[in-house]
Amino acid sequence: MPPEPQQPHKPYDGHESQEGQKRSAGPGPFVRSARPEDDEALGRLDRATWSTLHAVTPRPRPPYTPFFRENSDAGDHLVAVTGDGRVVGYVRLARPTPLASNAHVLQIQGLAVSDEARGMGVGRLLIRAAMAEGRRRGALRLSLRVLGHNAPARKLYESEGFVVEGVQPREFLLDGEFVDDVLMGRSL
């Protein structure tokens, strides 16, 4: 049976509880949908957090390409923002394939938290926002890929209900070491 059509995209602003009630942004970071004007801040964040702990692409070098590109726009991203407007994290949420038979699945295709915001629960906030946004869009599953040696990320995902669904052994060669690609997922 084909999945039900997805609801039109209404951006998640991080200010609504599951019951839809507004909450105060408070002193800590909150999550909202990315905007085109976030491009530069997100590009800086992405470059500052680059590491072979989670990246399989080479370190970015100037001239830098725009953060939002043809296959990734602002509508695919949720951003964590401080009360004074600084972007301190993001999560990219997209369909893993364009197939109608896979339309009930969304995938986390990137997550980054600035050094200044580590330990403040921003990663967890972004994951929970991605789950809420996935449900709002009508997804039934959320999946992701994480490098096997990224123990902090794997622990965080597991604490939020993700389970290992497969491992691609020695999928990447990073810094002279072979690294597994771990496939994780959860129902929404």
Word description of this protein:
With 188 residues, the protein is of the alpha+beta class. The chain contains three helices and seven strands, in the order E-H-E-E-E-H-E-H-E-E. The chain starts with 29 loop residues before the first strand and ends with a strand.
List keywords for this structure.
single chain; about 190 residues; alpha+beta; seven-stranded mixed beta sheet; 3 helices; 7 strands; about 20% helix
- Can you give the helix content as a percent range? 10-25%
Describe the global form.
globular
Over all CA atoms, what is the radius of gyration? 16 Å
Number of strands: 7
Sheet with the most strands, sense and barrel status: 7 strands, mixed
Question: How large is the count of helical segments?
Answer: 3
Q: Any low-confidence stretches, pLDDT <50, length ≥5? A: 1-25
